[in-house]
## 1
Amino acid sequence: KILCLIRQVPDAEAKVKAALGRVDLDGATMALDGMDEYGVEQALRINEGGANTVAVALGNSRFEDAIRRALAMGLERAVHIETDVLLDVVSQAQILKAVVLEETPDLVFVGGQHADTDSQALGAALAEALGWNQITWTTELSLTDGIAKATHDTDDGKESLELALPAVITTQQGLNEPRYPTLPNIMKAKKKEIRKTTPEQYGVSSSKVRIVSQEIQERPRLNKLLDGKDPIAAATELIKLLHEEAKVI
Amino acid sequence: MILVVCEFDTKLKKSALEILGAAQRLSKSVTAVLLGTGAGNVATEAAQYTSQVLVCEDALLEGAKNMAQAISDLSEQAEATMVLMAGSRGGREIAPRVAVRLNAPYLEDATSLSSIEGGLQIQHYAYLARVTETLEAIAPVVVCSVKPNTQVVAEPSGSTGEIYEVELELAASGIKILGRTVEKTSRVALTEASVVVTGGRGLGSPENFALIESLADVLGAGVGATRAAVDAGWRPYGEQVGQTGKTVQPNAYIAVGVSGAVQHLSGMGKSKNIVAINKDAEAPIFKVADYGIIGDLHAIMPALIEAAKKLRD
Ligand SMILES: Cc1cc2nc3c(=O)[nH]c(=O)nc-3n(C[C@H](O)[C@H](O)[C@H](O)COP(=O)(O)OP(=O)(O)OC[C@H]3O[C@@H](n4cnc5c(N)ncnc54)[C@H](O)[C@@H]3O)c2cc1C
Ligand SMILES: Nc1ncnc2c1ncn2[C@@H]1O[C@H](COP(=O)(O)O)[C@@H](O)[C@H]1O
């Protein structure tokens, strides 16, 4: 049995706005986090046809779009822990641990880095809450008789390793090519079960971390663009600017 | 007291000197922690910066789970109010585990840190580095990882700290390492380079990356690549810059044949100067560029390499 944690995040192309010290996502196109898609795809490759695969999402009501997308890719059903509170990662892990203990999977996939919080922490926090091992930044994974064999990226290269399940696997580009949902599967997904629950049912109601402000700080850029029709003149001018004006070479 | 978990090889890594520096600025009471094989060799170096150094070379100090247990045990014994770790991949795997064990708030990948009454306030990036967030946590103990290359390194304190060997009770991790490969480059490390030259799909072939490498060699720069170039098999993954690759913040980032997708910008958008070479005047990379040339890289790059050589000589 496999659980896939998923998130709904602003689409990469979406223009993120901030007003009064808060990110404003009204009107932004939202999507299933690309990093989570690798986990969904891998689950579907391990359990062909999607049997015993569950999407788990912890977030606001808009997360339902991401859940439907994961179900349309092929996961069997979903659990949605619905809340408008942005919880810190330790509190999230506490809730998700309870869900894992209810569902008793052998494997939990988590996106390697989330496109909203830019956080890499959830997989590790959940693994610790469960007392499990974890493989981060996984690029290759195979399973035989309850043993996972994997290759993953480290700070200075690659490592291959082996461990016994259960385990948390955090994903990385290269693990697979996530599929696009087909139209019949999108229709089928509409009928799949989404079990709804709340953080309060797991004894969590507030965050340990407070967001003081969110701002968009764009560095003003000079935008000195040269026409390359005369390559030698343009190149000479650029080198001169970098040396004399920017003083970086 | 702040517990600072230091990364090292034969010396303290730059990440360690940076978080020691951050800790010195936050508190007078700093303890360095050195865990794993070879820890003893860097203890006297660490003692230059802190009043106390805790060393453990237990062979079971492998894997995030055991490292986290060691750090949280030491934090509890020493009654630390803060645990600081490097925001490397390894650090960002261990730190959340420490926070879970201590039931503490976790602040991740801080670019700046400041003390507040009873806790810590940080800034960090969110939404693919498009947003700067200020976060705070008030608690008996706070765990924080610090983004590499954001902190001024520590100054020797002028006195030598006490070094203590500590014993830990650890169990086997259950992880069997089958093999490791370390990506070596003859050039300066991408994340530490003050100039980075990056090639994208616009290069058209792996052979054309010679243009990127030549310019990098003349400038003493690091070489980067976009995901498009890595996915095509033109360049190793270790060179990828962006959301799923490395984050760099050099004085000059020179992007050649790179369109400037959001996921790429999230890894280099904080560079002090951005330079773009692209034949498409509408390419998004130009919107964030300080300098640029609109033109065909096959004509521009050889001229640029020549001009850079002239400057160097
Ligand atoms: C979950 C996720 C994570 C991702 N993570 C990353 C990441 O970490 N890093 C990353 O880079 N991308 C990442 N991407 C991919 C990203 O969206 C882009 O697809 C990628 O950055 C494009 O690379 P590129 O700029 O090399 O190629 P393209 O977008 O194809 O751009 C090529 C550019 O070269 C120019 N060009 C072509 N020929 C010439 C010439 N002769 N002279 C001059 N200019 C020329 C073109 O005008 C064009 O602008 C990610 C995507 C997803 C979904
Ligand atoms: N050989 C190429 N040269 C330049 N741009 C390309 C090339 N191949 C694809 N693209 C563009 O790169 C973007 C992402 O492509 P892809 O990731 O292949 O879907 C699209 O805008 C494509 O038009």
## 2
Amino acid sequence: MLLPTLALRNLLGAGLRTWLNVVSLSFSFVAIIFLQGMYDGMNEQAVHASVGALYGGGQYWHERYDPYDPLTLPDAHGPLPASLESLIRARQATPILIRQASIYPGGRFRSILLKGIAPDQGILTIPAAALQGGDGTIPALIGARMARNSGLKPGDAVTVQWRDVHGTFDAADVTIARVMRTTVQEIDNDQIWIPLEQLRRITDMPGQASLVVLRPGARAGGTVAGWTFKDRSYLLRDIRTLIRYKSVGGSVLYLVLLFLAMLAIFDTQVLSVFRRRREIGTLMALGMTRTRVIGLFTLEGALHGALAALLAAAYGIPLLVWVAVHGYGVPQGTDSFGLAIGERIFPVYSAALVGGTTLLVLLVTTVVSFLPTRRIAQLKPTDALRGRMS
Amino acid sequence: MTDPICIEAIHLDKRYALGSGTLKALDQVDLSIAKGEFAGVVGPSGSGKTTLLNIIGSLDAPSGGSIRVLGTDIASLSHREAARLRNLHIGFIFQTFNLLPVYTVYENVEFPLLLRRMEAGRRKKLVMEALEWVGLADRADSKPAQLSGGQSQRVAIARAVVKQPEIVLADEPTANLDAENSHHVMRTMVQLNRDLNATFVFATHDEKVIGYLRRKITLVDGTIAADERS
């Protein structure tokens, strides 16, 4: 315990110099954890929102359905097999029919997807209940982005044109029943939701669907002929890939913060070895080996990290908990991130994030503290006592 | 019966590289100092006094010849062994005091004992004893910056003698002190030499110090020009 005792004594004795380093390092600690927590929170929120509004517990896709190939959409529909029907009847699944269509808001042509969903479904968070009723026209639900881009608002009627199952064009007016606010762009951009049965009727596709969304935990027994099961991890793979790329960007920021903090420690250590040459000589004259002097100086540097962790915990924990509870308001225009981000982000601080960051900072601080002290190994006690570098 | 030899140098040389040539700091120095002596190496600046003290204190290695301190050949010591020799047997007093600035007086004096991993109770007893010897027990909690030059040097003396070493090496111990403090410090060391029977070796050209010496070894250009006892 000799070296830790001496190192702590030296560190506390150095007063303001120590505390400046400790305070700045603690800022880095809190900033790194806060920013990574924001990223993790944003990612978790995106996954949670996408699962709730779109993916459910997995989906059965009609065998010709490919969301990445619009040319498949005209043929991506079929009657529901008995095993999926029984899940739907048991309210363990909900079917969705997707057709290509066009609208003419304000006289301008716009391609959209017309999606049919059961108004009484209880599996997705889409407010489909707004599609119940309708006074002669077809009630429609659109997202806020779609409303903004097309200039539509609740109560507006817009003409929709589609092809039925035989390829015949038809058209009708739909009335916007509700504009939903959603963070999930995949249920918002360029699409109109109408009641499933009405879409089936106007396209002459009774009992048909393009995909079936399952309630979490539900699953049809065995394989379903003509339909492919896509589990949640498959459906989320695009989001996860996006998150992975975004986390690289986050890591760069993390590394920059870490680098700046380490630069301060490195600088302090270089100065310390230079400024305290005479003290190093004295320590050697009093019987301290070079190895122990190096150990002492390294430990002093490393203790900056430990003290910073304690200080960061003292003010960082209440601060980070407050942000985690109340969330952090996201400025408008964050849609461009490409993720389903809410108006407030609730950061998530996992034990791995906090523990990992603490360990990493302590480890890097120790290494950075050690590097300048290697000069001591070449230092002759007689030169050090005269205040010279060998 | 004579006291046993404590320090013995035979044909001791020390050369430093200087540009393309070498500088001879010590040249064929033959010297023996017995236990309990109160001796001083005197001479003008650059005569090799500090170099000789550094080699005796195992802070530097000789370039030629041999030197044995307490029976140990200094040239053969590893860094670790040299550090151990210094910690156990040799106390240093420097011209600039070299107190550790962030430590209190007590902690400065305690430091050599901490390196020995001495038990706390015994450590405290020895530190307070050493501070009593130099008359600074009441300043134990002061920081070096709060002390006068004379007090600082007395703390350095307490730190050198707290471990009750066989040898105390003092390099120009009064160079930064006024006359009154110089005499005070020297009287303290004379007293400690008597009480502890430790060997004191000084490097000095200060007449006030020279007046207290019982043996004066005069060094000129790295060679012993005179060796007088009083």
